[in-house]
Design goal:
27% of the residues lie in helices and 33% in strands. It folds into two domains: 116 residues, Rossmann fold; 155 residues, Tumour Suppressor Smad4 (Sandwich). It binds adenosine-5'-triphosphate (ATP).
Length: 295
């Protein structure tokens, strides 16, 4: 008999995660799965449960929560030998991973994907000893995201990040960065932001790296160097048009491995959570996990 673990964050998505459990259970039992439900209570519970699911050779793990729960769940499986198939029921505010995979953002519709057997392999990013599915960001602009309160997120959604970002840009918060990629190339200078995206969806905005595919094995990297406010304003237009890659003020490159260091203390932001300070090494684990997706 096949086995499925439902990892449920009861606090996510306006506390409605548990209302989807009965239907998921019914669908999976009809497909011959034995289903176990676990509820998270605090940070890293999802990682621990998912690790148990790998060790006990579960066939499927279903994550019910926002990007935070998903990030923790995936961190529980990436370094395991047996990695169950993953299903995502998006219940957060932004749901970048679901957006990148075209998983319906309405949870009711995402649940219906469990009825078919369509799945897709997805790259995983590695930053030092930690893993990410969407993005690693470095610099003052990335740090601004920590200033966004849960109340702002609920009220303004992804726009809350843009608002904090504008505050940082207007105070000229750049960091001196040394960025080495694909072994022999180096960029050195003061930057507002370095971004390495695995998918096309970041902060709910789906046009940052329009040609990033979830399984292309590449980090899509952007450097936003120090520049005046006029140039910055025009970059916002490029972002909104999905043309950031072509903007001459922005450095864009694709790489399989990136090393970043600074002579100052600079923090990283890994899938929206605080990560290691610099120096960091970024790598891609190509097609490392398999996710239930739209046919
Ligand atoms: N029972 C719980 N109560 C409160 N927090 C929890 C609980 N279980 C897990 N958490 C923590 O809540 C964090 C945020 O959850 P998640 O991102 O899934 O939902 P969300 O906040 O609704 O989504 P988003 O961040 O997109 O708004 C998780 O990273 C986890 O550490």
């Amino acid at each position: 008999m096949k086995s499925a673990m439902l990892i449920v964050n009861p606090s996510s998505g306006k506390e409605e995660a548990v209302t989807y459990v009965a239907e998921i259970q019914e669908i999976l039992e009809d497909k011959g799965y034995a289903v176990k439900e676990v509820q998270t209570e605090k940070e890293l519970d999802a990682t621990k449960y998912c690790r148990d699911a790998c060790k006990e050779a579960y066939d499927l793990v279903v994550s019910l929560g926002g990007d935070g729960t998903l990030h923790e769940t995936i961190n529980g499986m990436v370094d395991q030998e047996h990695r169950p198939l993953l299903a995502v029921i998006p219940l957060g505010t932004v749901n970048d991973f679901a957006r990148a995979l075209n998983i319906p953002l309405h949870p009711d519709e995402a649940v219906q994907l469990l009825r078919n057997d369509h799945s897709r392999k997805v790259d995983i990013g590695k930053v030092n000893e930690r893993y990410f599915v969407n993005i690693t960001a470095v610099g003052a602009l990335a740090e601004a995201t920590y200033e966004v309160s849960p109340e702002q997120k609920t009220r303004f959604g992804p726009l809350a990040y843009v608002m904090e970002g504008i505050k940082t840009l207007s105070s000229d918060g750049t960091s001196p960065l040394t960025i080495q990629f694909d072994d022999h190339k180096t960029w050195e200078g003061d930057a507002f932001l370095f971004l390495a995206a695995l998918t096309n969806s970041t902060g709910g905005f789906e046009r940052l790296a329009p040609d990033a595919e979830v399984d292309d094995g590449l980090l899509h990297c952007f450097i936003l160097p120090r520049m005046n406010m006029m140039r910055l304003a025009s970059i916002v237009t490029s972002i909104l048009r999905g043309e950031l890659q072509e903007d001459s003020s922005v450095e864009y490159f694709k790489a399989r491995r990136v090393e970043i260091s600074s002579r100052e203390t600079v923090k990283t932001n890994v899938d929206g959570e605080e990560g290691d300070p610099l120096p960091v090494v970024l790598d891609v684990l190509p097609s490392h996990i398999e996710v239930i997706s739209v046919p």
